[in-house]
Write a structure and sequence with these properties.
By secondary structure, the chain is α/β, with parallel strands linked by helices. About 20% of the residues lie in helices and about 35% in strands.
Length: about 550
Amino acid sequence: MTIANALQLELDEATCVLSAAYAPTGENDTLPTWDTLVAAVQARGWPATVLDQISAIVFIEQCRDTAGPVEACIGEVRNGTFELEVAEDRMSAQLTLRAPKGGQPVGESDLLAGLQAHGIVHGLIPEALRQALERGACEALEIARGTLPEAGEPARFESLLDALKTRLSEDDENAIIDYRNLGDLTLVSAGTPLMRRIPATPGQPGTNVLGGPVAPPAVADPPFAPKLNGVEVDPEDPGLLRAAIAGSPMLVQHGATVNSLVEVPAVDLSSGNIDFEGTLRVKGDITAGMHVRVSGDVVVNGTIEAAHVEAGGNVTVNGGIIGSAEGVADSRGGSRMARIVSGGSVKARFIDNAQVRAEKNVAAEREIRQSTVTAGETITVGPPGSQQGVITGGTAHAYKSVHAGTLGSMAGIPTVVRAGLNPHANAKRAALETRARELEEEKAKLEKLILFLHNNPAKNVNNMSERARQTHAKISADLVELQAEDARLAKELQPLETAMIVASRRFFGGVTLHLGVKVTEFLEDQVGGKAVLEQGELAIR
């Protein structure tokens, strides 16, 4: 009997399982082999790939070892299949296509029906579908992509005074400071336009692959800041901020303030210490031992001696700042060092035996000697474009750059110059942490009050519950702003790659440079240059 008669193939349509049956009839029967199995499936119009090699070999072995009939599964015949998966955010869809095994491949109509069943109607990629069908197989191929929403524009606050724009602009760390733009006192009269608020522009929604809308990201649309001193919103134009009083304007976050101006002949025993919210102009000197604290600018026509001056704005001294040597005390045991703290910039003809701290820039026309000077942006000594200006002794620390003609002295006086790390960041972060703790405590108390009023409605008099909820929401928003500010300060504790220290004429021995976390010390005099960070290392150019 021939093998064709003894060997029969049967396909289970329900399970797609292919079985073979061998029924020998006599001694001359031809035993099945791999080739005869391949020939048998090909005779049925199937490719050899429908055979499972291990199952087929087991069947052949059984036919050789068994005298009677043998029947076993030897493979399967399957049509092509596909799977569609929509991403969790519904912004893309992927296709996995499996080739058939002896059956029919997936057709275009099958895919279209599957897409419709899954609701995938937007962002189809026809070329990807065509290539997948041509290849007959693919794995997690993106075949649909949603349309992303377009972000809107947040509200903007634009200054309407050129002088204020100059004061608050971000200085280029490579630029030389123009002294004419530092410390100028800007005065405005009542009704002067100060700032224009441009409302936020909402974004455009997108569309996911299921045809659903995708909301654009929320855009910040804050109003003018509350409790702005000396200003008012125009009653006929809510986007315009005007001065309510005459005085000196200053830009703040989301607004501006106007500080009243006080002018005195001198700050000495006849005037007493000065502490007020406004701007101070001194025709003469601020003498030793006096204390001045103002929220605005301090402009001194004379000199500041060993006094303590704290200003929320700029400090401009037409003369110099001169204290006594560190450690020298007055008759009451107090230090005779001059101490200057500025929320803006400090400008003076010279700085001698002083402690100066500025949030922005410090500029001296001639010299900084035996002083401790810190600036949130730059320190510059000497006229613009010249090789004049000397920093001798003490410490000079700026975030962005330090510029001078000469660093150190022929006598080798120890002089430390730092740049690249914000000198104020740690103190500011500590203050933020303290404020955050206070707000968290207040928030917890409000939550207890809200819960108590909820459980005891009779106690909720004068709409106390609603007022507590509003205060709770305001504190929550304040905490979010504190977290954002803390994150910004954390970045400023990392070395600034663009920071530099410039001595255009000479580095003297005894000078130590700190650029970021890198340090170099000059044991001998050296021609001037620019210290920068190159590939993380300190280099002199």
